[in-house]
Write a structure and sequence with these properties.
The structure is a single chain. With 248 residues, the protein is mostly helical. The protein contains eight helices and three strands, in the order αβααβαβαααα. 44% of the residues lie in helices and 7% in strands. It has a three-stranded parallel sheet with strand order 1-2-3. It is globular, with a radius of gyration of 19 Å. It binds nickel (II) ion (NI).
Length: 248
């Protein structure tokens, strides 16, 4: 069940039986020569929407621009400052809380977002703690889950791609997007086959170190079939974890 594809009476009816919502959160940033700019937003969206359909979980709109300053040397990347992202996440959370949501499960697709999301949670909780209205607040809880860290998923990715998984523009994430959008499949030769590794600093430094955008990966190994397996494992894990979180 997707918020964007629901009417307000349907959301009101959902709230009568559940106070929990899943929000995919990611980034709009370059993902190497064959990966989509939306990869980090599309992966949690593809997994989240399938979990929503299978288990009747309400899935909110994707928060699809995040912390991507280091990718600004590549065309198409869009980034938010940490302070902007935190402010926007607070407004999303407070809007949902106003309607009665008490559990927000943020399914994240971008490692660079983690520190900012965690800080945003702290700001969200500060908002509740500092409120002296005397209102007896319902317990608002946020949960962060990186999709690649869902139980069983990382093991599966390593099994599918024992060499060249890397850490940016990985064959696993490209496979997930190709499963969701088969029309996006592109066959591009990678030179070198496996990209270099190194630190992530500013945008110019990144482009010098990682000229085609990849870090440590060989995404030419990506396939729709691998994406299907990863999504199936991730959907199963999300449903189980979301249900526990909703009941917590
Ligand atoms: Ni990514």
């Amino acid at each position: 069940m997707q918020l964007h594809l629901s009417t307000w009476p349907e959301v009101e009816a959902y709230l009568a039986k559940s106070k929990a919502i899943l929000i995919p959160i990611g980034s709009t940033e370059q993902h190497g020569p064959n990966g989509l700019l939306g990869t980090d937003a599309l992966c949690p969206e593809i997994i989240g929407s399938r979990a929503g359909d299978e288990a009747g979980i309400l899935v909110g709109p994707t928060f699809n621009v995040g912390q991507a300053q280091h990718h600004m040397g590549f065309s198409g990347t869009i980034t938010l400052r940490p302070s902007t992202m935190i402010a926007a996440m607070m407004d999303w959370a407070q809007s949902l809380a106003k309607h009665g949501f008490e559990r927000i499960y943020w399914l994240n697709g971008h490692g660079g977002n983690i520190a900012t999301i965690t800080t945003a949670f702290s700001e969200i909780y500060h908002g509740v703690s500092f409120d002296r209205s005397g209102a007896n607040h319902p317990p608002l809880r946020c949960n962060l889950r990186n999709w690649w860290e869902l139980p069983g998923v990382m093991d599966l990715c390593r099994q599918l791609f024992p060499v060249g998984e890397g850490c940016h523009a990985t064959p696993s994430e490209v496979s997930v997007t190709w499963f969701g959008y088969p029309q996006a499949v592109k066959h591009v030769a990678m030179t070198p086959r496996i990209a270099p590794n190194g630190p992530i600093l500013d945008a110019d430094d990144y482009r010098r170190r990682f000229p085609d955008g990849r870090i440590g990966s060989d995404p030419s190994q990506a396939s729709i079939e691998a994406g299907e397996k990863i999504v199936a494992a991730a959907v199963k894990a999300v449903i189980s974890e979301f249900k526990q979180f909703a009941a917590s």
